[in-house]
Give the backbone structure.
Amino acid sequence: MEVLYINSSLLYISHRPLNSTGDEQTVYESCKDMPAIIICYLVLQFINMFLGIPANLMVLWLIHKRKGDSSTSDIYILHLAVLDVLFCLIPPLELANIVFLTTSSTWYVLRFFYGMKDSSPLFLSCICLDRYMAVVHPITFTELKDRQHRAVLALAVWLITLAYASAKCVGNIVNFEKVFTGMILAAFAFMIFCNIVILWALRQSGPGRDEMHPVKKRAFKMVLIILAIIVFNYFPPVALFPFQVYFSPDVFRCYIHYLSFGLMDFSSSIQPLLYLSREKPMCCLNCCQSGATQIQ
């Protein structure tokens, strides 16, 4: 069986002839000697589906509801939520392809959605850039606040995402995996830089070394949590993929790749849950205010 390695939530596909006899191995059968990570990956993907879809839909509803009082980053969060909802729809097809099917036709659909998810760090980078400008360059941020450049940037990211996903869908572009490696490394480094600078700026903005305004203190904690999530979700592929040649093909195909992308894909649930946890106090406050108004 000819194996082609690609950088996706499924790294390889079998190139089967059109007159396939059906006796070829499924992905799961090819890793039958080391199935633990694949099983954990599939369980994680279904958790991601049942948790990520409602969480992202709630994010979309909240952003729509508070349209007149939205933050500047909400446009990127909205588009990221749409992308994650689409990605969270694929686990049933993925389960069928990994465990039961030997046909190669359905991999075109999966590779397209994997390509979309591969590009999600671009929207995260836009969010980090927006926060970086707000904290580190507040004057420039204020001057640009009401302009349409965010919508233009979001459109540009979608065009890049669709072009990348379409190219990944083809599945036979030589050295295409290097595009993902370069993209994830650049996005990861950029997000880490922005968040560390934001944390440093917030930490130094207090009147004393150990003092900080309560609002800035909450912002500091939130950015710290975001930084931890970025490291948790995106560090494994960043750390492991450049060293693919040092792993045996079976270990990389059945272990490393599923571990790395399982964590990265789970960001489709963690990101909206983080947003909802941030919005919860505001929602409770609005409910309390509504109740008080009705009592009066």
